[in-house]
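---------- Forwarded message ----------

FYI, see the DeoR-like transcriptional repressor C-terminal sensor domain-containing protein record below. Original note from H. follows.
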Amino acid sequence: MAPKNMKDEVQLYRKIIARYAAAFVSENDTIFINTSSNALQILEYVECNNVTVITNNGKAIGREYCRGVNVVLTGGKLRHPKDAMVGDFTLRNLQHVYAKKAFVGCSGISAELGMTTEIFNDTDEKAFDDALNAIREKGIQVYQVHKSDF
C-alpha cells in the first residue's frame, strides 16, 4: 500500500531503516543508542534475547520491548524537548561502559563535517562530538541512522 502523504512516506522509510538496523543486533549484544527517535525505534524490531541497551534517550522510559531487552540509562541533565540526558555526568558514565555496537541518529551527514545535528547550543554540540568520539575510541561499530529528506 502506497503512503498517502509525505509524512506517511517518511514514517515508512524510518520503519524500514529501523528494521534493517535491528538485523545487526545479535544475541548477547550490548548496544548504545543515542537520543535519536529513529535509533530508538530499532528496539521495536530487535528479536534477540539478552540484549543490553545503553542510552541517553529519556524517551526509552515507559516503552515496551521484546522480552530479553534490558535498558540502562546514562543519567545526566535532562534537555527538553528531546528528553536527552546530557552533560558531564552523562559523559562520565559513558566512559565506564562498553557497548559492542552503537546506533547513532543525526540530522544529516556532510562530506566536510561528518555527522551533523540540529542542536544550536555549542556546549551541546561539543557534548555530541565528545560522546561520539569516546564511542569510536573504544572500537565500537557505529551505525549511523540519520534523518534526511527521503
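H. also flagged this: The CA atoms of residues 44 and 64 lie 8 Å apart.
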